Amino acid sequence: SVSAAFREHLRRLGLEDFPCGLGSWVGGRGKHSRWGGPQSAGLSLPLSLQNKSRFDAHTSPRGGRLGLGPDPAGQEEAVLLGEESPEALMELLRDRHSPWALPPDCSPQDQHLREMAVLTPELIRGSNVFQVFRSLRIVGKGVEEVDEGLLQFQQLEELILSANQISRITSANLPRTLKVLELCCNAVAGLQDLCAQPPPELQHLGLGYNRLCGPSQDKYLTVDFWPNLVSLDLSFNNFTDLVGLVSQLSSLQRLRVLVLQGNPLALIPTYRGFLVDSLPKLSILDDIRVGPDERHQFRGLARQPELIRSEARVVVSVGEIKGLPDPSARQQLEVGSEAPVITYSYCVTYEF
After folding, report:
1. Which of 1, 7, 89, 131 ranks highest by number of CB atoms within 10 Å?
2. Both 260 and 112 in a single domain?
3. Which GO terms describe its cellular component (predicted)?
């Protein structure tokens, strides 16, 4: 599930382990050293390492006030022996040579979370961590289920779940605050569950490289379900009815970006012209900007659906065939030779 993948990601970030979190990390066999990174099994760190609290709510064992400002008496707090300042801990996180630096493939958000774990640890402890996220990206983690745990992300605006194994999306489990939903490269074959209670403020819906086909799914691509949709990606599915699909998409008055390339209907000769003229507010079609010249060139095409043919011409060019005898290179037989003549014939089959 999405929640399980999220928990595993947090575990890998080590938000409660040195140098993140709030508390002390007692030295010992196999623990982390301040300067040397993970200790070998035969060494130990004699002192405990503590993250000096930056909040007035915490006090030191000696009665010192551990806050951002001076204590009530106006005296600076005393730094305990073995205590790490937030600045020193941040240095360990940011130095790319540090043993605690994140791998290069981690996102800026991951780094931001770890820095928050040093500077404001109480903001990401327990259920508070869900309120931090405006964007959640879980890509290529084998996720199959969009579970109700997502509802804990009450501030979430962007959810990217590409390259997983999701076949159905229960819209009741999606935060109502979502503005971007990206489900590219999954196994989505129907939109009925997604459209039961869709996020009302959604502006981008990405469904490229799935298993959608029309006309059964066309009816879910209307303003009744997506009143604020600005961008829609339906590329590389199995939509075939251009006229039927356009009749539904035309109700999306805010739609400006549309991607339909990779569908069978994109093979229709008048495909682009028909879309450009049928959707006059469209700014970008298949990653190509729609200019005024195109609008003028294709004017009136939307009123001539009879020009759209239900067939397409496919040209196949064979560049090279390897591993077969070349009939054109037959050896010249000597005059009067009784050697047999061998001929070859080939059958090439194309399956579409």
Report:
1. 89
2. no
3. cytoplasm
Adjacent-strand bridge partners of 32: 38
Convert the pLDDT of each residue in 261-273 to its tens digit.
999 999 888 999 9
Domain finish residue from 76, 105, 132: 132
Strands 204-206 and 180-182: parallel
Those residues whose C-beta lies under 8 Å from the C-beta of residue 329, and which sit 6 or more positions away, are: none
Helix and strand numbers, DSSP H then E, in the chain: 6, 13
Antiparallel, parallel or unpaired: β 158-160 and 49-51? unpaired
Count of structural domains, the chain? 2
Question: Max alpha carbon distance in the chain (Å)?
Answer: 121
Residue type, 69: G
């012209």: which residue's tokens?
Answer: 273
| Residue in the block written with tokens 């879309």 | 275
pTM for the complete prediction?
A: 0.69
The tokens for 194 are: 């997604």
Cβ atoms of 287 and 311 closer than 8 Å: no
